[in-house]
C-alpha cells in the first residue's frame, strides 16, 4: 500500500528543518510520497522546501486553516493511504510500515502512532490510546500515559490529527475534517467518532513512534484565552452534532446549560458563556451535520465509546 505523507505548515520553516528530513527518509524507505500542505505562509518555507527537497510536493494556498488545508491535500493525493503530520512532529525512521499494515484491512479507517515527547518521555503526551465518556454534557477525552498500557496495538476512539494514517477512500467518504470546528481542535475527534459510527475501526499502534513538541504550532499563533474558548466551543458543537441518542442528548444539553449558568454566577475561567454564544453562531451548521450523521449512523453512541475502548458489546 502506497502512502502520501502530508505535513501541514504555516510559517513553520524552522520546524520543517527538523520534521521534513525525517519524513522524507521514512518515505524513501518505501514507494511513498511527501507533500507539504502550506496554509498561507509568509516566511521562506517554499524556498526551503524547493531548494532542499525538490522531490517534495509543495502545495501553496491562502490562509484557510488546518482542516481545509488537510482536506485539499488529501483530495489531491494519488495513493491508497494518507498520513497527516503536524510540522512539529518528527517521525521515527520505521514509523510507517506498522501503520500501513492496519490499513490493509478495509474495515479499518485510521491508525495512530505512539506519541512521545521530544525527550522520549510520556509525561503529558497526548494522542495515545484515546478514549472518551460523556460527562457534564460533553465528551471527556482521555489520553493514556501509563507505559504498561501502551505496549500493544488496540482500538482507540480517534487518531490524533498531529500524526494519523488513514485509508483515503474512507476519508473521502466521510468528507474529511468538518469545517464546523474551524480553526482548530476536535476535527480529529469528530472524524474518528463518525468512522466508528459507520462500523469502521480506529487503531493505536505502539510499534510506530513519533516525537511531538505538543502545542508549538497553535501557541505561536493564538493566545491561551482564545485557545480555551475555541476548544470549549468545539466540544459543545461536537455534542450537538454527534450525540444522537435522544435521552443522553437531552441530558447533555441540560448539563451544558447548568454549567454555563454556574460559570456566569461565579465568574470562573474559562467562561463557558463565551463558548456557548460562539457555538450558537454555528448552530445551523451543527444541525446540518447532525442530520447527515443520523442518515449514516450504524452504531449507537454508547457502543461507539465501548468499541473505542476496545470493549466487546
Quantity of strands, as a count: 11
How far is the first residue's CA from the last residue's CA? 31 Å
| Count of spatially separate domains | 2
CATH architecture of the largest domain: Alpha-Beta Complex
The amount of beta strand, in percent, is 15-25%
Mean pLDDT across all amino acids: 93
* Radius of gyration, CA atoms, in whole angstroms: 19 Å
Would you state the CATH class of the largest domain? Alpha Beta
**So, the CATH homologous superfamily of the largest domain?**
Spore Coat Polysaccharide Biosynthesis Protein SpsA, Chain A
Structure classification: alpha/beta
Low-confidence stretches: none
Produce a short descriptive summary.
The chain is an alpha/beta fold.
Overview of this structure, please?
The chain is of the alpha/beta class and 313 residues long. Helix content is 44%, strand content 20%. It folds into 2 domains: 3-220, Alpha-Beta Complex (Spore Coat Polysaccharide Biosynthesis Protein SpsA, Chain A); 222-308. The protein has 12 helices and 11 strands. β2, α2 (45-52) and β3 (57-59) form a beta-alpha-beta unit. The model has no long low-confidence stretch (mean pLDDT 93).
Descriptors:
alpha/beta; Spore Coat Polysaccharide Biosynthesis Protein SpsA, Chain A; nine-stranded mixed sheet; two-stranded antiparallel sheet; 20% strand; globular
